[in-house]
Structure formats: C-alpha cells, structure tokens
Design a protein that fits this description.
Elements: E1 4-9, H1 13-21, E2 27-33, E3 37-39, H2 44-48, E4 58-60, H3 61-64, E5 71-75, E6 78-82, E7 87-90, E8 98-100, E9 103-106, E10 110-112, E11 124-126, H4 130-149, H5 153-159, E12 161-165, H6 169-185, E13 199-204, H7 215-227, E14 230-234, E15 237-242, E16 245-249, E17 255-259, E18 262-265, E19 269-271, H8 274-282, E20 292-293, E21 299-300, E22 303-308, E23 313-314, H9 327-344, E24 366-371, E25 374-379, E26 382-385, H10 387-400, H11 404-420
Parallel strand pairs: 1-2, 1-9, 2-5, 9-22, 11-18, 12-13, 12-18, 13-14, 20-23
Antiparallel strand pairs: 3-4, 6-7, 7-8, 10-19, 15-16, 16-17, 21-22, 24-25, 25-26
Length: about 425
C-alpha cells in the first residue's frame, strides 16, 4: 500500500495553508484548483483602483509549492464526487479525470450573492476575481474619460457618480480608494472636469458602515470616509439596479433613484457551488447562505475522511456565533486539519485513536483601511484608528502575501503611492465596460 492520499480542492487561503502544513508529512498531497494561482483577495480592491497590478497580489501555485516533494498541483475543475469510492471527479475526464483520495479537504470558497436578483449582475460590477477587478478599474477610469468629453451637465454628473453597494470592509476600502483617486490621483489630469466633483455613495442596509466592527470604530471609519469625499447611505435597501443607476428604499418606506453610470457590488457572498454537490452526494446539510454544516472537527457528518473549511464551511465560535468568512478563519482551519491528518497518518504522536479536539478559532482582530494614513483596527480589547492602525494594516497584509517577491513589490508601490498619490496601474484595458465602449 502507498502513502495516505490527501486531495485538497481549492488553492485559496484554506487549501494552501493545509498543503503547506503537510510539507513534511508522510502523505501524498494533490492540490486541485481551476486557476493556477493563489489570489490574495483582501488586496483585490487595490487592483480595481489602480494601486497594484494583478501579478502583485497573485502567486502561481506551482511556484509556492515547488519545494514540497510530496505535493503536486493539478489545474482542473471538480464537478462531482463519489464518496463511496472516495473519488473526486474533474470536468475533463483525462488521465487525471478521477482522483482517488483517502482524505479530502474541500476549500472552494465563496461566490457573489445577488439576493435573488441575478439580473443585477448585468449592471453592477462584482469584485471576487482578478478579471472582475480589472473590469472595475476599466469602468472607473473610463467614467472620468467619458465625463471629460460629455457636454450635457446631467449626463456628466451621472458619469461622475460612483455607487458602492455594501459597507463591509471591502466596500469601505474600495470607496475610500475611489475618494483618493478623485481628490488626489487625478486632480491635475483633466481640463474639462474637476475630478473632485465626483460623487461617491456607499450604500448598506445596516445602520452604520462596518457593521461587524465596534460602534466607535464604525464612527471613526465613517468620519474618515467623509473626509475623502465619500457619502455613506446607511439604513437603505437596494430594490433595483439598472443601466441608469440604483433604486433604494429608506427605512421610512420612501424610495429614491440614485443616477450613476458606475455601480460596484460588495454587498454579500454565497458559498461555492461545490456545497450543493456535497449535499447531493454525501447528504451534507446546508445553511441559508449555502455553507456546509460541519462537525466540531470540521469533518462532514458521516464522512470523517471529508473536511470542509474556509468560506464553504458553516462553523461557530464558543458562543454559537457563525465564524466570519475571512482569511484568518480559513488559514487557521487549514493548519488545524493538517494537524489532524498528520496525527492520523502517524506524523505525530498525539494520543493514538483519541477523539479529535474541536476546532477553536483564535480571533486576532479586524482591520480596515480607508485611505492614506487612515484605518481602523480591533486587536483583542484594543481599538485603534488613524496612522497607527494604518501601519498595522500595512504590516499584516504584507506578511500575508505568500511570496517574498510580491511583498517587496507591493511595499515599493505603497511607498511610492504614499509619497506621490500616483497609481501606476491606471490602465484601461480589455473590451469590457459600459455600452458606449
């Protein structure tokens, strides 16, 4: 009999950290992903706003794992599962069309959620992939170019109105970056328009921005947004999105149409479609957002050889509250599952056949950046804001980039941006964008 076969589905934070933690284990690891790179999603908004280029926040999976002799990487999309035979089935039925496993780790992440209005995707740009980030960059920069040529004041106003739906960390960071683009980066670039006249609206159904954060940090984040020209709209519900803008409903039932040519969607996510495969093939229970309900050790009930981690897994803290879909949760879960696998395969002497200790998430805090030297941070019981929180945000995000070369490049770009406000990746590329293109 050969070594224990571990198949990891997904090369995001959860899958990659599982693979890296198994580098010295006596197992054979196969990591499968439909993309050949690991994407650092927390910095995706900086690609969308021209601060960074795609290659600076993504690393080829083969390069990251090249030093692990027990690991191979396969490019492919998983479309089915046979838990009875312990086989993962890929879309292309070639030599590796069926991948046998002894342990399967599913870390396929999340996708955009449109709350039952998939038609909104035609008019609102989501931000989950590199391609979507480049399309958003295209739309933002093109909007200023179109406004420069537009003679009608009302149409020009529509081109210079940007709406971000969703005031979580991604929406706040994106809106803050848009404010800096309008107020600083582009302020000398145009002759017929003043980029500072751009209207940046941040919408959310909650009563404040950054709803999961403590109230004092939400207030400070909102003040920082207002300073860079962002207008938060809290307590409003989006009821329609079309080519002319967004329809919202206020708490008192009043409706309003916000005219805009650029709408960006940062309002919510839904678990990946592989959760539905687990439900169909292995009887997995799904919660309302499509997440898979797992046991205390992150395994699928009835299938101790299948683990589900990251944004796809529905797990709770000691108070019974669902864990957030953030990178730290996925990373810790990946490391935890790797420990269980090493224990199971004899990599460590940790008590033989004793039951697995349940996964416990160590909350290391929350960070969100609003702009130049402006951020908010919750670290343990400490609430920080301003320059110190911004420095912590910079350090943490640099360290989470998986390759040293990326850390160095991003550090240089951030330093240059801090000194000059110049966003070097302000390129309008591709053929995607508004109908006028």
């Amino acid at each position: 009999m050969g070594r224990h076969r571990v198949v990891i589905l997904g090369g995001g934070f959860g899958g990659l950290y599982t693979a890296k933690a198994l580098r010295r284990a006596a197992v054979e690891v196969t990591l499968v992903d439909k993309r050949n790179f690991h994407l650092f999603q927390p910095l995706l908004y900086q690609v969308a706003t021209g601060s960074l280029s795609p290659g600076e926040i993504a690393s080829p999976l083969r390069s990251v794992l090249s030093g692990q002799r027990n690991t191979r990487v396969l490019l492919g999309e998983a479309v089915d599962l046979d838990p009875r035979r312990k086989v993962l089935i890929l879309a292309d039925h070639g030599a590796d069309g069926e991948i046998p496993y002894d342990t399967l780790v599913v870390a396929t992440g999340a996708r955009d959620a449109w709350f039952g209005h998939d038609e909104w995707a035609q008019h609102a740009a989501p931000l989950k992939t590199i391609e979507e980030a480049v399309r958003i960059r295209h739309r933002i920069l093109y909007a200023f170019e179109a406004a420069e040529r537009e003679q009608d004041p009302e149409k020009r106003r529509q081109w210079l109105t940007f709406i971000v739906v969703g005031a979580g960390a991604t929406g706040v960071e994106l809106a803050g970056a848009l404010g800096e683009i309008a107020n600083d980066t582009l302020k000398h670039d145009f002759r017929s328009i003043d980029p500072k006249q751009a209207r940046i609206l941040l919408l959310d159904g909650a009563s404040r921005v950054l709803p999961p954060y403590p109230e004092d940090l939400s207030r400070k984040a909102e003040a920082s947004l207002i300073r860079v020209g962002v207008r938060p709209y809290a307590g409003v519900r989006v009821v329609g999105i079309d080519e002319s803008g967004v329809n919202v409903e206020h708490g008192d039932g009043r409706t309003e149409h916000l005219a805009a040519r650029t709408v960006i969607w940062a309002a919510g996510v839904r678990a990946s479609a592989f959760g539905e495969i687990l439900a169909r093939r292995a009887g997995a229970a799904l919660e309302r957002g499509g997440r898979v309900v797992v046991g205390p050790d992150l395994s699928l009930p009835g299938y101790p050889e299948i683990f589900v981690i990251g944004d796809l897994a529905h797990t709770t803290d000691r108070q019974g509250r669902p864990l957030p879909g953030v990178a730290q949760v996925a990373m810790q879960q990946g490391s935890y599952v790797a420990r269980l696998i090493r224990r199971k395969t004899g990599g460590r002497r940790t008590g033989g056949g004793a039951p697995n200790k349940p996964f416990r998430y160590r909350d290391r805090g929350d960070l969100a950046v609003i702009g130049r030297a402006a951020a908010v941070a919750r670290i343990g019981g400490f609430h920080l804001s301003g320059f110190l929180a911004w420095l912590i945000w910079l350090f943490v995000h640099l360290m989470y980039l998986v390759e040293f070369s990326n850390r160095l490049l991003v550090f240089i770009h951030w330093g240059f941006l801090y000194l000059t406000f110049n966003r070097g990746a302000r390129l309008i590329t591709g053929a995607e964008g508004p109908e006028e293109l």
